[in-house]
What we know:
The protein has helices at about 25-40, 65-80, 95, 110-120, 130, 135-140; strands spanning about 10-15, 45, 85, 100-105, 125. By secondary structure, it is of the alpha/beta class.
Amino acid sequence: MSSWSFRRTPFLIAGPCVVEDGDTMARVSAAVAEAGLRFDIPVCFKASFDKANRARAAGARGPGFEAGLEALARVKRESGLPILTDIHEPSQAAPTLFVASRIDFPFLSSHDRYIRFVAVGSRRLRICSRLRRSPKVQKVL
């Protein structure tokens, strides 16, 4: 499998929208890894432990922070894939840095204090383009 990098294109970020129960995570991560090998592209597994921006209010929200992070750590350990997930509160940043290779900031919950905290952990950040144009974020970047 190719190593992960935003610099090498094309690359694939794939996974279930939200952390799933049962063997779904293992099956999906195996398929993502296989796609990386088959097409010789970098791949990254993505799933959210808390899907706050659901299309339907009754839609699956996820297992929550602790159970979701445990599931993502299992995927990382068993598949060897880099992990991308999102955080919603500053207190989630430090524990997530031990599991995720990349951290996503949902647009509505992103603030400069998150970015400062995670940047100190020397992990790469994925910041959506609308947020990147924010004057507050420009000061941090």
